[in-house]
Structures are given as C-alpha cells and as structure tokens.
Amino acid sequence: MRVRFETIHSRHAIVLDAGSTGSRVHIYEFQYCGEQLTVLSDEVFAEVKPGLSDYSHSPQEAARSLEPLLKQALQRVPPSLQSCTPLVLKATAGLRLLPADSVEAIIASVRDYLDDHPFPLHDPAAVSVIEGSEEAVLAWVTVNFLQQQFGENLRTSDEETAVVMDLGGGSTQIVFDATSSSSGPYDPRYYYPLEFQGRQHQLYQHSYLGYGLMEARKAIKHRALELAAGQGKPMVEFACFPGGHEELVPYQTLNATLLKGNSGGWGECLRLARSILHAEQPCPHPPCSFAGIHQPSIYHQAKPRLGWRPVVALSYLYSRPGSLGLAQPVTLARVASEAETVCRLRLDQPSPSPHLSTLRHQPHWCLDLAYIYSLLHHGYGIQLDHPLTLVKQ
C-alpha cells in the first residue's frame, strides 16, 4: 500500500477591527494540511486609541493612527509571506454614527495608506464599514469555531452553540442559533441563514446602534437631567456617580448642568439605566427584547433550565464585570451583588476591599455596571443565575 504524506504548513491573515473607541489588529496564523484548515495555531492582538471616528475632520490622521498596528503585522508575518497574506479592515459603529461624507473620506484615506504596505487588499470591500448584522454573524462564527463547537463528533445543535453578545462604545450586538425557535411570521431582517461546516443554521441577530457603552453613558446622564427638568436647578444629584464627583453635562439647548454624585445606590442607578432601553415602545413582531425589537428567547420554552447553552460576552461586557474580581464564569446575580458595593463608594472615603480601591476614582463604574446588568437581564433576557463567559477579544 502506498502511503501519502501531506505537509502541514501555515498561512496568515490580518484583520483590522476599527471600533468606536479604538482600532485593533488580529494577526492570525492557521495550520493547513493540504488545503484543509486544521487549527488556529497563533494570534497576535494589539490595540490603539482613539478610534478612527475621532478623526472625522482629519482623514489622513485617521489612517496614520493605524501605523503601530501595521508595524506589529510587519514584525509578525515573515517578509517572504507578506505579499500573499490578506488584510482586511472592518469599521463598526463609530463610523456608522458619522455623516456619510466623513466616512467616505476616512475610508479612502485608510485604503490609500494600506496600499503602501505589502499585504494585499483583494477587493474594494477589504476596507469598509460593515453593517451591525454582519458584525454579529462574524462574531458568532468566530466564537463557536474557537470553542470547537463544529466538526465531526462535536456539538452542533442550536441549543448547544454559544450565544454571543458584544458591547462596544457605539453599539451592542446579540446573535445566536434560533433554528428551533424562528418559525412564525417574524421579520426576516432579524434572521440570517448560514451554512457552516455542512450544517444549516438560522441565526437570530441584531445590532443596536446607539446602545454602546459610551452612547449609553450620555443617554443615562440626559435621562437624569430630563427627570429634573423644570426645577430650574443649576445642579442635579446623580445616583450613578460616587459622592464627591461632579461633571458638567450639556443638555439640549440649555447651558451645561452640573451632575453631582451622591452615591445614591445601585437601585436608583439601575432604574435610570433601565429607562433608556425604552421597553415601553410597541412590539410589532413579538416577542421583543427592548426598543421594540423582535427577539426570541435564548431559552427552551418548555424547559428553560434544560441544557443552558453557553453565553459568551465580549468587549466592555468583559472589561467592566471582569474588573470586579469575580471568578469565571460569572452570573448577573454576582455582578449585582458586587455592584451594590461599587455604587456606594465615595471619593472621600476608603474602599471596603483592595480590589475595589481603584474603582473609587473611576466615576463611571456604577453607571457602566448598571447599564450592562440592565442590557443583559432586562434587555436580552439573560437569567440572573445563567453562567457567563467573559472574553476580552
């Protein structure tokens, strides 16, 4: 019998993720046996701040902000392979929030800048702004691929693949396999048929533009000012800030109003955070999550606790709860318990525990945790004791 040996070799790929608060580079190395992808063998990750959207009046500066990331790629990919290593740049909510002419100028400048490097841009869409739906689907494929949920003898049912949630600065996304729960007269805009690894998946996906963490901060502050409107006060007490912190906040056509922290507590801050989800909006295609957006439950309707699928939370969903010192996987119940302590912190008093000492001087921590808790529980419908895996990238 003649035995044929295949050579295992490596290929690289470069992805630039241009988010609202920063730009990141992922330099992937894959191992192949023949033409068959075997494994992701290595990844280099680096980040720069601010994001491209901060350069709306200077497209050339936007392009030059990517220089440290390109240097990482040039150092990591061998020179002999650079001309055959594809590169893509995908911009997300930060640019989606800008006027069209500013977006076009930044994208054109970035494309010209990248053309001066050896990594090939195979088509015009290699440098582009992606829709939230595409962003969500790509995250789902990536997470489930890396968790080895697909392939021979691995779990592939819709109730076993991971629910993926991402919270950036400008938007938030949720995506999961809804094959068994997507029947009915639902709006097809929320569903994405995907054939992957020989199986057909019906993904539910939605991206909420304007509900990222930085946008939510603005909305919650404005909500506090709105509730105090008509009182004629130059200063408004704000439960989501620690006592001793003050911040001038522009609101509508009025002069800036002073928000004064009073360590008002978790409950009051949570009520403000929940109010910006606009659960009162009509739901044209029930069931809905928030803001009138259709979303089926991630849980099995007949047996909601049976076979809980993994939930993977990315970006700010990692960095904020992840800084509380909780062991993974975490639950929203544990987050709320720690957040109650965070929301009582004051600038002029010592913190009750060493791991919270740095949070005392970061005025948005209570606000951020209240929004994340409300988004996941009141918005996406995650049960308080459901284990969550927090992932940075």
How would you characterize the overall build of this protein?
- The chain has 393 residues and is an alpha/beta fold.
- The chain has 11 helices and 14 strands.
- α8 crosses α11.
- It is globular.
- Number of DSSP helical runs: 11
The fraction of residues assigned to DSSP E strands is 15-25%
Largest sheet: 6 strands, mixed
Please trace the helix and strand order, writing H or E for each element: EEEHHHEHHEHEEEEHEEEHEHHHE
Q: Which strand order does the major sheet show?
A: 8-9-7-6-13-14
**Mean pLDDT value:** 84
Quote the distance from N terminus to C terminus: 47 Å
Q: How would you describe the shape?
A: globular
Which key features would you list for this structure?
single chain; 393 residues; alpha/beta; 6-stranded mixed β-sheet; 5-stranded mixed β-sheet; 25% strand; globular
SSE order and pairing:
Elements: E1 8-18, E2 23-33, E3 36-48, H1 59-64, H2 67-76, H3 79-82, E4 87-91, H4 93-96, H5 100-115, E5 127-129, H6 132-146, E6 163-167, E7 171-177, E8 191-196, E9 199-209, H7 213-227, E10 235-238, E11 246-251, E12 254-261, H8 266-275, E13 311-315, H9 316-322, H10 332-342, H11 365-379, E14 389-391
Parallel strand pairs: 1-4, 4-5, 6-13, 10-12, 13-14
Antiparallel strand pairs: 1-2, 2-3, 6-7, 7-9, 8-9, 11-12
Helix pairs in contact: 7-11, 8-11, 10-11
